[in-house]
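Hi R.,

Here's the chain you asked about this morning:
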Amino acid sequence: MIEVAVYDSKGQKRETLKVKEDILGGYIRYTLLKQALVMYHSNKRVGTASTKGRSDVAGSGKKLFRQKGTGLARAGVSRTGKRVGGGATFAKSARSFRKSMPRKQRQLATKSAVLAKLLNDNVIVVDKLDFEEPKTKKFAGILGDLNIDRSCVVISKDIDKTLYKSARNIPRIQTMQVSQLNAGDICNHHKLLFTKEAFEKFVEDSRQVSGKKKVS
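And the predicted structure, written out as tokens:
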């Protein structure tokens, strides 16, 4: 059983939540995490690099001059990569680097990533993050009170535009709703900052996926 403290925006402890490791897969699956990270980084590659080969450049396909008897080096067509204006040798072409994983594997990788953060005390739960209007200074103060001084993913239950606007100018801070949480973003940041509602929703969704019944 893992105990997670819930803090207010001033960094004061308010209560404690308990999470069973079984709900999050029971143990950290490092092989699955690596596979998820490879997919995460591959899907961020654009793959639009392209150069023209000898079949793409303009020019005649006729041999420039006869093979022997001219006193010159042998020459083929003008479009060869050895000549100025010719095509590139081993030309690059646009390609997709996209990879995929089965949905259940992605879910299990996400739960393993969160479990790893929990076991290393890198998950922080705050009772609420309410902003009447975007305030970067206020949000930065909350991060300071919670001792978050490195990269962090801020997770809310639903889309919160005010929270997003308050955090978007702070370096190494990323905001998302709990349904967007993935192993790649978790592993690429040092800490996770959940709102209490978001953390409870994540645990409940994980319980449903794992088939564990809620124990009152």
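The helical segments are 30-42, 103-119, 136-145, 161-167, 183-187, 196-210.

Let me know if you need anything else.
M.
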